[in-house]
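FORM 12-B: Structure-to-Sequence Request
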């Protein structure tokens, strides 16, 4: 015989059941290594309190897309940069609440090499885009999980697969123009 559902004690209301949702996104840590030292393209959005929050470009996978393809697309859509994947930086997963749903999000991150260096903030979701010196990226990023990716980027840049046998740094990088100017939202 089935038992009746429990009734909450007097004076307490039963909480509505929260729906859990799985979301998968992909993004890129895109580097410009053409100058004296590497720079990363970061995006900024306004949070609910109106504060500027810096993060890595990322977004949802579209139907039939691989995480790699989505990362390249999202980097282009949010920064205007065409990139080539150099390495996987792994995944970050986290939980958050939105619209009365508990969302478990998994984000696949990739290290990308910029094929061009002209930034665009044409994406309506992005407030600002900027090239940030790699040594300053961790201090600028809002989210701890993304800040931890900086160590993975440094490790990847030291790998023989990406360097042709030697480390990439200020003394070994190809010389080129150095622009640290952000692309602001135009009216």
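FORM 12-B RESPONSE
SEQUENCE OUT:
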């Amino acid at each position: 015989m089935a038992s009746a559902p429990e009734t909450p004690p007097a004076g307490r209301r039963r909480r509505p059941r929260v729906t859990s949702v799985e979301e998968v996104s992909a993004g890129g840590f895109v580097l410009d290594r053409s100058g004296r030292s590497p720079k990363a393209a970061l995006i900024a959005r306004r949070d609910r309190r109106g504060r500027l929050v810096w993060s890595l470009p990322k977004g949802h996978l579209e139907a039939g897309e691989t995480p790699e393809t989505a990362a390249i697309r999202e980097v282009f859509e949010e920064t205007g940069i065409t990139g080539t994947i150099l390495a996987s930086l792994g995944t970050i997963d986290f939980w958050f609440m939105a619209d009365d749903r508990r969302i478990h999000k998994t984000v696949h991150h990739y290290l990308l090499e910029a094929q061009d260096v002209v930034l665009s903030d044409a994406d309506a979701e992005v407030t600002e885009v900027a090239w940030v010196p790699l040594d300053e990226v961790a201090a600028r990023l809002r989210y701890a999980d993304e800040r931890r990716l900086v160590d993975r980027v440094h490790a990847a840049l030291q790998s023989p697969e990406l360097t042709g046998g030697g480390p990439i740094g200020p003394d070994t990088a190809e010389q080129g123009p150095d622009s640290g100017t952000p692309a602001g939202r135009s009216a």
